[in-house]
Amino acid sequence: MIELAVDDVVTTHDEARRHEREPLLVLDPLRAFLDAHGLGAGPVTPTPIGAGHSNVTFLLERDGWEGVLRRPPRGPLPPSAHNVLREAGLLRKLGPTEARVAEVIAVGDDPSVIGAPFYVMGKIEGHVVTNTVPPELDSVDERRRMSVELVDRLVEVHAVDWRAAGLEGFGKPTGYLERQLRRWTGLWEHNRTRELPAFERVGRWLADNRPESPPATIVHGDYRLGNVMMAPEAPARIVAIFDWEMATIGDPLADLGYLTAMWFEADDPPMMMELSNVTRQTGFLRRDELIARYEAGSGRAMTDIRWYQTLAVWKAIVFMEGNYKRAVSGATDDPYLKSFGDGVLELAERAEAMALGG
Questions:
Q1: What's the rounded mean pLDDT across residues 253-265?
Q2: What structural domains does the chain harbor?
Q3: Where is the Aminoglycoside phosphotransferase domain (predicted)?
């Protein structure tokens, strides 16, 4: 469980003003907001959940009700990043589709309530698998089934008719890869704390070898094992996909590239930046098996998958450097983020080996 600092959760805005940093939650106005939406009664008990390295997520408990609140981290934040209101709007549009998403039940678009925009979604029971597998799913067959579910649900997301879902204007269906290179180069300028020549070299390789995209789909942007919830009992099945903050309309192979680039097999060398290490265990599919299953399910060719995997690691450099910058600036107490300094260098070496190693 993530430990709260003394200034993370306060009771009133007057109390918040006595601290140097902005709070993450202000309980009295939050309670009034929940009351106005008919969500439980009485005092609010918040508990941080999830990894907590990006947007901040709390389980909220009160008499007769439980829900989950999601808000941006403390600033300073890169332009257009951590837009939880955009994320909430997407989840509401995806609710009637085949995509597995949580129900958004209230949106706080007034930052004066807790100090930032936020939304509240219904609580879903299940397991988020990162570094341990719950006993109910801890067998060779169930680990394989988790892998299969992960690929099949991604195929399902990419099959959603985004125009019919009302997502015209949510993203531009053409030019996605070109915009990705431009946007993440700009974010690097905002996030970086040092020179990193390998990042520049990989960026040039990506620009020089950019493939032609297949027809556009919804793109999750951070699709991995740790961002889905498995049902609480066997057989393994995904009941919800979380963390849609980077979603857009674009090239679906960017999701597969990211999923497989961040997927570690038993004989892979250890890395500091492993977001989940359970996939090293027997039963989990190997990267080539994930790719083959996606190809069979989606009908899309995998000719350029190395390019998409390299893009994923290159983007992770930018994202992790931003988290490291927040840690060294004092915007977060998360000790894990302070280790990102060396982890970013490791990612840069990996991206360069993928791009230029043949």
A1: 96
A2: 9-122 (3.30.200.20), 135-356 (3.90.1200.10)
A3: 47-271
